[in-house]
């Protein structure tokens, strides 16, 4: 019924790529919803920073543990189907969080939300990896992240602006959750109906060995149920043995800590005394900086990979990681924590986002696509999310614990309108602890790639050649 529509293009852009980017927009918007309304959720459930941190922790932890499921599902199902399943799961759980009346209810549905995202994100990444060639893959991932971040901006701004209002007798922050869930369901349905898995496309911008591996993957997935687990175990062993994967996961465990800690930025700015609208504007500036930085980093890393094929991306990664140290210190401790510093905060956030956002899209994701055979790409992205997501999930509650136990944060002394300079300072110290040090370690942990990346990439190419010879 939908055969005619599936291959079509809109304004020269593949409908599949367009809808995949729409899914990325909704995924990022969903991620940003809760942090944008931390203050209102804190009041609704009488929860402090550590409790709010646990809401982020439980979603990220479940997401990390469940991520390998994406690799298993993709073996026997088309990625559009897998994406639609994950989108349905996260959309329903998002609506349920908005309807929750108790903290434990919200915590349970946040866990379900993590499960849905665990299925979606690796499938999205491998879809993009298969849709672009090696030399422009950084740009492809950068574009996906750029467009996805627009959704993050929309989700965060929408929730922050709506938070203090009421709509048809429903609290604004709850209404934002319901609205986002409805839009996610719509996008999930469109992905299921119209997106074509690139591994089913033969002969378009792909060499013969990659086409064979895709066909082999589909044949194995359609044989019998036990082959799913055999293929999953084979893929898992193959991925785990890759030194480049081990190194990137190690840096990712510490490198993702600052990004998880940043969920407290909204609460921090409101404690300083900024209004909902000004806080939303500041976070939008940061998100725009990160979006442009991802795209810029992708373009620069692609260019560097042409000049220095075995080290160009690694140099870009270390530059981006090390820039997080001075920017975190300047943002959190040097700029006076006052509403009069609005312009300084805005410029700093933009420049910070522009320089610290390269690693995932410009470096890690493209490198992963080059060090394993095509049929193992979803699995490598899934296990990367499993390790990084599980460990980085501890950052949010740690920020809350440090702020409360070490730096004296007291949620009872906060003015609901004016905030609290003392609590803002305590929270900023907790944030700095979970940002500057991990950024430095992240830069250091990339160093072994100078030795192993070239070797692992050659091994993957040899494995592809041998598969072609066997055929």
From TrEMBL:
Membrane topology of this protein: Multi-pass membrane protein
GO cellular component, as recorded: membrane
Transmembrane segments: 82-101, 107-129, 141-163, 175-196, 247-269, 281-302, 314-335, 341-365, 386-407, 427-447
Pfam family name, one: MFS_1
One GO MF term: transmembrane transporter activity
Listed PROSITE patterns: MFS (PS50850)
Main location: membrane
Signal peptide: 1-23
Localization terms from the record: Membrane
InterPro entries given in the database record: MFS (IPR011701), MFS_dom (IPR020846), MFS_spinster-like (IPR044770), MFS_trans_sf (IPR036259)
Domain (Major facilitator superfamily (MFS) profile) ranges: 16-451
Keyword annotations of the record: Membrane, Signal, Transmembrane, Transmembrane helix, Transport
UniProt cross-references to SUPFAM superfamilies, sorted A to Z: MFS general substrate transporter
Family to which the UniProt record says this protein belongs: Belongs to the major facilitator superfamily. Spinster (TC 2.A.1.49) family.
PANTHER family reported for this sequence: MAJOR FACILITATOR SUPERFAMILY PROTEIN (PTHR23505:SF78), SPINSTER (PTHR23505)
The protein's name: Major facilitator superfamily (MFS) profile domain-containing protein
